[in-house]
TrEMBL record:
This is ARSI Arylsulfatase. SUPFAM superfamilies: Alkaline phosphatase-like. CDD domains: 4-S (cd16029). Coiled coil: none annotated. The keyword Hydrolase applies. It holds the Pfam family Sulfatase. The gene is Arsi. Residues 50-361 form the Sulfatase N-terminal domain. Its cofactor is Ca(2+). Keywords: Calcium, Glycoprotein, Hydrolase, Metal-binding. Gene3D superfamilies: 3.30.1120.10, Alkaline Phosphatase, subunit A. One of its GO terms (molecular function) is metal ion binding. Belongs to the sulfatase family.
């Protein structure tokens, strides 16, 4: 029998942490910038396609924004959200690559073959080349397109790079995480390389600059050099607040009273990112874009709780299909919104941005059939009902199968050992192993001893493979109704079967030793020739490299000379 430690704790906890007393109107750091008199005479309208700024943060927890009751200072985000539309029924994916792929393609990851894990630096894998991307559609509509920040959609061939997938310019990293100052990334012991790129070249000269500020400065430069009379799309994918936990000291100092060291550093990074968003907003106003702009803010997945993040009061964390892993922070800020200053509970998923933004840009969606996203602009701008009624969170056939799952438990139509999750209306179903399932309070009171995060824990579930929740009535996923409502379980399992029939084979190839940065002058970058075919095993477990031992023997001497060459190049720069 389940032990619900939250039952007597929840209301007091929510009040004590300020969750039920959000300050919706915190002061903003966004300055009022004087604009050209001619610009003021133009009323906000859709006479011209709007400028689109899409801001994506990395590993920012649901609780980690001021207007969700956090102790972390985010005055810019609070002000922008308060003046726009807060999306409080907004869903993303539990890890990096899946969210980014679904944003860029408008398709669930089962329809791009990226339903398992992330794209790793040494894998010959990338966003499928047959997918027409969001920036490509905006280019067709006459937009100038720019990307700043983290790509994480593969780079083993040049065709996979951002500048080959629809972006006119790119400044950022190709892999999943880098040092905020040195831009080094290690994919295992001794497999390290530099990862900051300008277009298709390595940006050695930018080393030493804190990435959050570097990216905001680049956005400002792009806006300064472009004409506000021509539509522009800028995708700002901040590295923040992913590990490593690094921030300028002056931001850490303001959180010196926080007892939890990881939380202190993390909070500093969030506030630093908030200031970068302030600078971007200031540039939009200064250079005459703001009145005809749409700013979308989104997180990419839930917060990583053992790295300072908090998804309280939601259950779970990054990498799980509990709400703490897939419910995101999201809002839209724009003078073009008809009904501003409100909270929307319309169901929205990250795949919806593709058709929504292309429609705003007056682009053509007729040649990209079978999108999984919907145009949700009427729901956001006018408060109309969302066209979305369900979300496939994912089906991952390669993830470790649950020990106690079976076809029998799935009414003979679904193997409940398979990791999957779906939301239909107010119901949410999970099968297999959904991931770490605890509720984790904010790490702000003191340094908790040992496994402090186990303060609130469900003691059952170890022998389960099916969970059902009414998310509307129970957003914190405390009460599993799978035994009481087998009819609903069967209905949602039928929807999983439907989606699974449309899934394509999983793309998750073995790592390739040719990807080692030592073979690329010390930097991560493309290693396969353009005429090489795609190397992936559809629906199979990752293959082990048969050449691993041989590679290590061959590469020792080569590695020495590559490192020597890298040092010489660095000294010259």
């Amino acid at each position: 029998m389940a032990v619900y430690a939250l039952t007597g704790f929840s209301l007091v906890s929510l009040l004590s942490f300020g969750y039920l007393s959000w300050d919706w109107m915190k002061p903003s750091l966004v300055a009022d910038v004087a604009t050209d008199p001619m610009e003021k005479s133009l009323p906000p309208s859709f006479a011209r396609p709007p400028h689109i700024i899409f801001i994506l943060t990395d590993d920012q927890g649901y609780h980690d924004v001021g207007y969700h009751g956090s102790d972390i200072q985010t005055p810019t985000l609070d002000r922008l959200a308060a003046e726009g539309v807060k999306l409080e029924n907004y869903y993303i994916q539990p890890i990096c690559t899946p969210s980014r792929s679904q944003l860029i393609t408008g398709r669930y990851q089962i329809h791009t073959g990226l339903q398992h894990s992330i794209i790793r630096p040494r894998q010959p894998n990338c966003l499928p080349l047959d997918q027409v991307t969001l920036p490509q559609k905006l280019q067709e509509a006459g937009y100038s397109t720019h990307m700043v920040g983290k790509w994480h959609l593969g780079f083993y061939k040049k065709e996979c790079l951002p500048t080959r997938r629809g972006f006119d310019t790119f400044l950022g990293s190709l892999t999943g995480n880098v040092d905020y100052y040195t831009y080094d990334n290690c994919d295992g012991p001794g497999v390290c390389g530099y990862d900051l790129h300008e277009g298709e070249d390595v940006a050695w000269d930018q080393s030493g600059k804190y990435s959050t500020f570097l990216y905001a400065q680049r956005v400002s430069k792009i806006l300064a050099s472009h004409s506000p009379k021509e539509p522009i799309f800028i995708y700002v994918a901040f590295q923040a607040v992913h590990t490593p936990l690094q921030s300028p000291k002056e931001y850490i100092y303001r959180y010196r009273s926080m007892g939890n060291v990881a939380r202190r550093k993390y909070a500093a990074m969030v506030t630093c990112m908030d200031e970068a968003v302030k600078n971007i907003t200031w540039a939009l106003k200064k250079y005459g874009y703001y009145d005809n702009s749409v700013i979308v803010f989104s997180t990419d997945n839930g917060g990583q709780t053992f790295s300072g993040g908090s998804n309280w009061p939601l259950r779970g964390r990054k990498g799980t299909y509990w709400e703490g892993g897939v419910r995101g922070i999201g809002f839209v800020h724009s003078p073009l919104i008809k009904r501003k200053r409100r909270t929307s509970w319309a169901l929205v998923h990250i795949t919806d941005w593709y058709p929504t933004l292309v429609s705003l840009a007056r682009g053509n969606l007729s040649n990209v059939p079978d999108l999984d996203g919907y145009n949700v602009w009427p729901a956001i701008s006018e408060g109309k009902k969302s066209p979305r009624t369900e979300i496939l969170h994912n089906i991952d056939p390669l993830y470790n199968h649950a020990k106690y799952g079976s076809l029998e438990d799935g009414f003979g139509i679904w193997n409940t050992a398979v990791q999957a999750s779906i939301r239909v209306g107010e119901w949410k179903l999970l099968t297999g192993d959904p991931g770490y399932s605890d509720w984790i309070p904010p790490q702000t009171l003191t340094n908790f001893p040992g496994s402090w995060w186990n303060l609130e824990r469900l003691t059952d579930g170890l022998r389960k493979s099916v969970w059902l929740f009414n998310i509307t009535a129970d957003p914190y996923e405390r009460y599993d109704l799978s035994d009481q409502r087998p009819d609903v379980v069967r209905t949602l399992l039928t929807r999983l079967v439907h989606y699974n029939r449309t899934a394509i084979p999983v793309r998750y190839p073995a790592e390739n030793p040719r990807a080692h940065p030592d073979f690329n002058g010390g930097a991560w970058g493309p290693w396969a020739s353009e005429d090489e075919g795609e190397e992936w095993e559809g629906g199979q477990e990752p293959l082990k490299s048969r050449n691993k031992k041989k590679k290590c023997k061959i590469c020792k001497l080569r590695s020495f000379f590559r490192k020597l060459n890298t040092r010489l190049m660095s000294n010259r720069i």
